[in-house]
Design goal:
196 residues, 74% helix, mainly alpha
């Protein structure tokens, strides 16, 4: 009932329902109570209370709450920033199939945001997210195919080109701007595809 009220933008009533259910120990309700505290919907904004709700919900195995808790730890929202805890909770959510966490982990390993750089782990997480059609991950995996093409030579080149184009095209259809720009460049230069 609270979710319907929230969708209808009846935030005060939605918050009441979420808060009541959260007090009874329901992790989903704890998550939505945290969202209300985060955005100030139906209640005064409180990063500290949002953090506590996300932590309780995450401990109750609510996957979106794990991701939001990781965000809190990463950005120091409602708590002190803690890269170790951020990495722990992004990993827990990603291991449960949460796409946004998979992409965040991939980026973190690629750029060394939460831990040391690790290109193998970055590639693994990008590929897992791309398999689930996460647009940015698809773009990154397509770029990996391009890089492989430049270092591997002719062996398997046609397959890598085909895979890159397929991923760029699919990511572009899902409104990934980088993939759209890359496709325009490839068609403009006639690379992998006939010049258009």
């Amino acid at each position: 009932e609270g979710r319907n009220l929230y969708r209808e933008k009846e935030y005060a009533r939605a918050f009441e329902k979420f808060h009541e259910a959260a007090a009874l120990g329901y992790p989903d309700a704890m998550f939505y109570t945290g969202v209300c505290y985060t955005n100030g919907n139906g209640v005064e904004k409180s990063p500290e209370k949002a953090f506590r709700m996300f932590r309780s919900a995450a401990n109750g195995k609510n996957i979106p709450a794990m991701h939001n808790l990781a965000n809190c730890y990463m950005q120091g929202i409602g708590t002190k920033a803690n890269k170790t805890q951020a990495l722990r909770w992004y990993t827990a959510a990603a291991d449960s199939g949460y796409l946004r966490s998979m992409s965040m982990l991939a980026k973190s390993y690629e750029e060394g945001i939460l831990t040391d750089k690790d290109s193998d782990k970055a590639t693994m997480w990008y590929k897992l997210a791309a398999e689930k059609e996460e647009p940015y991950a698809m773009y990154k995996v397509a770029r990996l195919h391009e890089h492989e093409d430049s270092v591997a030579g002719k062996k398997g080149k046609a397959l890598r080109n085909s895979q890159a184009i397929t991923l760029f095209t699919h990511a572009a259809k899902l409104r990934n701007v980088q993939a759209q720009m890359k496709l325009a460049e490839l068609y403009g230069n006639g690379r992998y595809v006939k010049k258009n």
